Amino acid sequence: MGRAVRDAKIDRRDARLRLSPAKEPYWRLISEGAHLGYYRGQRVGKWVARFKAPGSTGGYAKTTLGEADDIRDADGETILSFKQADETARQWFAEKARGDRPAAGPFTVSDALDHYTAAFKARAGAIPSDMKSRVDEIIKPALGHHEVASLTQKIVGDWHNARASSPAKLRTRKGAEKQNERPADDKEALRKRRATANRDLTVLKAALNLAAATRDGLPIAAWSKVRPFKGVDVAKRRYLTDDEARRLVNASEPEFRPIVRAALLTGGRYGELRHAQVKDYDRQSRTVYLTETKNADPRPAYLDAEGVEMIEASVAGKMPLDLIFLRPDGAQWKRSQQLRRMNDAFDRAKIDRTTFHDLRRTYGARLARAGVPMAVIAEALGHKDERITRKHYAHLAPSYVSETVRAAISGLGIAESSNVRPLAAQ
Question: Residue 423's pLDDT is what?
Fold first, then answer.
């Protein structure tokens, strides 16, 4: 294919930032029928590519390569420099020129996972962190070496069962003596492990199904006949009361307190908040735009007056590319650094331990109790399907059904009188 393209309009970050947002990308010719493009959006820029075989009368095949390094430095995966985008585009052009036929040679589970994540990234623009960890840390080490053509139902089934029966290890502080593993035979622990194993299996099946769609002769039954465990994916019911939330904030370490407040006031996940930058905060609309989301679909977090005050205090004196929430040493909060701090805060506040993610559930629960429609809560939390929202929060919302049932069964008179009265609502 032709030489590397050098164009003053898109090959330098400062030049790209001077371009006006447009509906169509700024295209540059790589070779006949092959173009690398830069799409300038209102918030971020993205690298795109299009290809049409020479002499073809059909339209262009198009793909998204990743986010441009206009704001954040390139990482070679989800954020690409011009050179990285050019190289990625050329690989895609080569595949399209072959008619999307896979290259000859052994095709392993690891290859299938790589193809799947690349396709997901092209479609969504980024790979969710939980998917990446499942692929790199769980599936590849166990199954990556197997050739897909040689997979059997026993191989996949045994792996799925092993994932469900392996006990989860307790995290310990750095340098501390290793604690015992949680018992794998505990009923609730077993349910959680099976639910996790099902999510791992879903990612594996998606990758292998994509491989089967482009390759002939793969043993689809080897994975399609492995069934997920039933009755293990239950809605979690842990929500903090307003009093518990206030006690938790007060009990949190001072440097960790701002991100705890943010979770309670925005419904943001830990991973979303630790990546949030000052530029993502819009004073006029009173929103924080969360870009590093679980499903790679950015969304706004809506702030009330208290939330605005909280964010204003966190962004004061910072530059647009600075992170909103920082560690005491000025670095970014890392994955899992919230675990010990949350446990310590719960202990100090004398609240049963739960997780950082339950702060997000508390946000959703407060909306549901206030009578906010499920569709609005789903939008605020970034749920793809309103059924997910209903599963977790519908029972908390005031409803015609609940009020009708209570009115219909009242008056039986079989409860004994008591002087015990509930405390006033917090």
Answer: 57
Which residue positions in the chain have pLDDT lower than 70? 1-8, 99-105, 124-125, 167-185, 234-236, 400, 417-426
Tokens of 402: 């609940």
Domain boundary among 45, 67, 97: 97
Using a 10 angstrom Cβ sphere, with 0-12 exposed, 13-18 middle and 19 or more buried, the burial of residue 207 is buried
pLDDT tens for each residue of 114-163: 999 988 887 766 777 788 889 999 999 999 999 999 999 999 999 999 99
Same domain as 250, residue 142: no
Q: What is the CA 267 to chain-centroid distance, rounded?
A: 14
Q: What does DSSP say about strands 34-40 and 26-31: parallel, antiparallel, or unpaired? A: antiparallel
The residue segments making up the domain with residue 17 are: 13-97
3-state secondary structure of 236: coil
HSE value, Cβ hemisphere, 13 Å, CA-based, for 329: 4
Stated as kind and residue range, the H or E segment containing 68 is strand 61-68
Distances in Å between the Cα of 419 and the Cα atoms of 363, 411, 412, 416 are: 34, 19, 19, 10
Helices (H), 353-414: 357-369, 374-381, 386-393, 400-409
What is the spatial distance between Cα 55 and Cα 51, in angstroms, rounded to a whole number?
Answer: 12
Residue 418 lies in a domain: no
Confidence (pLDDT) at 180: 45
Query: Are residue 250 and residue 398 in the same domain, yes or no?
Result: yes
Beta strands (DSSP E) in 164-309 are 281-282, 287-290, 299-302
Q: What does the pLDDT read at residue 189?
A: 83
